[in-house]
């Protein structure tokens, strides 16, 4: 029954997110200054070609002269049928465009998340095992700088160093495997300080526990004691913190994908806003919000599966 209740709660959250985020995006897009038809026509044909006559034709084609409430009700009807409408600029179904972009976003997210967790575990355990050392102090200072640096600045520095100056990696694109390195590293460096701190604090707590000291008294090597007693507790704390980091990941995704021309959800959202492509704005924003709800629910369920004590507190 508890699992069933959790599933219904996740479904209710998803429905609420669909309605709230979609409506908010529609209202914000309608509130922006300028002529929507002119911006959409410019997205189709270019600003050099667009004139008043073309903008009027686009307005009539898309029904932009209808009341906003009517167009919002039409969007609700399409949403109830599992559709996001069609892109005003490209004319393709938004669902097809978002499905293509989502694959690239998930690819980048997985690589960035893996890098961030690997760096966080390594650096966090180092600072927990040797607190106050030269390298530990250096790690703390670098993490302070990274925590204060926005993703855009990190991306510019990394692309300038590794792509422009050294020429080791391409600046932008997605055709080759090497294209994912710089955007993934940018996201990973933004996430790494938080993971490092969580691993360090959890590691220090475990290292100072009676169970860990008893394991060493039994003659277990440090590596074995860490693997058996410290790592499970640290991974549980890291997984719990991962749910918090989802917001930072999604926020950074918009900036990083745009900076490196990575064809993901964030990149599409920025271009949709610039072109005032309302269905694409709604579709990309809804996908990102639903992705957050789904991942948060999966992490929460996994945490309760790994630590039954959390289920008892509900």
From TrEMBL:
Among PROSITE patterns, the record links this protein to: ABC_TM1
Subcellular location(s) of the protein: Cell membrane
Kindly state which keywords UniProt assigns to this record, in alphabetical order. Cell membrane, Membrane, Transmembrane, Transmembrane helix, Transport
Q: Which residues cross the membrane?
A: 110-130, 151-171, 177-195, 234-260, 280-299
Membrane topology according to the record? Multi-pass membrane protein
- Which Gene Ontology molecular-function terms are recorded? dipeptide transmembrane transporter activity
Q: Name one Pfam family in it.
A: BPD_transp_1
Per UniProt, residues of the ABC transmembrane type-1 domain are 102-303
Output the Gene3D superfamilies linked to this UniProt entry: MetI-like (1.10.3720.10)
GO annotation, cellular component aspect: plasma membrane
Its family remark reads:
Belongs to the binding-protein-dependent transport system permease family.
Q: What name does UniProt use for this protein?
A: Peptide/nickel transport system permease protein
């Amino acid at each position: 029954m508890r699992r069933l209740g959790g599933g219904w709660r996740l479904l209710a959250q998803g429905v609420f997110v669909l309605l709230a985020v979609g409506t908010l995006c529609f209202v914000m897009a309608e509130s922006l200054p300028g002529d929507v038809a002119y911006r959409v026509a410019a997205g189709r044909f270019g600003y050099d070609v667009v004139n008043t006559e073309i903008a009027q034709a686009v307005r009539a084609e898309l029904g932009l002269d209808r009341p906003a409430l009517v167009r919002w009700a039409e969007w609700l009807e399409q949403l109830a049928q599992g559709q996001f409408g069609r892109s005003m600029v490209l004319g393709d179904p938004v669902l097809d465009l978002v499905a293509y972009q989502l694959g690239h976003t998930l690819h980048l997210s997985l690589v960035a998340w893996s890098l961030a967790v690997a760096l966080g575990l390594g650096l966090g355990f180092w600072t927990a095992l040797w607190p106050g050392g030269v390298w530990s102090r250096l790690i703390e200072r670098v993490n302070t700088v990274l925590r204060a640096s926005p993703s855009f600045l990190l991306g510019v520095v990394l692309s300038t160093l590794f792509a422009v100056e050294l020429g080791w990696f391409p600046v932008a694109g997605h055709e080759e495997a090497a294209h994912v390195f710089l955007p993934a590293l940018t996201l990973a460096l933004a996430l790494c300080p938080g993971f490092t701190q969580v691993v360090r604090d959890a590691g220090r707590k475990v290292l100072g526990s009676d169970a860990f000291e008893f394991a060493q008294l039994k003659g277990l090597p440090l590596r074995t004691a860490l693997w058996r007693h410290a790592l499970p507790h640290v991974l549980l704390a890291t997984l719990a913190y991962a749910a918090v980091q989802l917001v930072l990941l999604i926020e950074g995704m918009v900036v990083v994908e745009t900076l490196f021309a990575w064809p993901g959800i964030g990149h599409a959202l920025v271009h949709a806003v610039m072109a005032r492509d309302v269905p694409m704005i709604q579709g990309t924003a809804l996908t990102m919000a639903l992705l957050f709800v789904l991942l948060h629910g999966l992490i929460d369920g996994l945490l309760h599966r790994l630590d039954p004590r959390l289920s008892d507190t509900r």
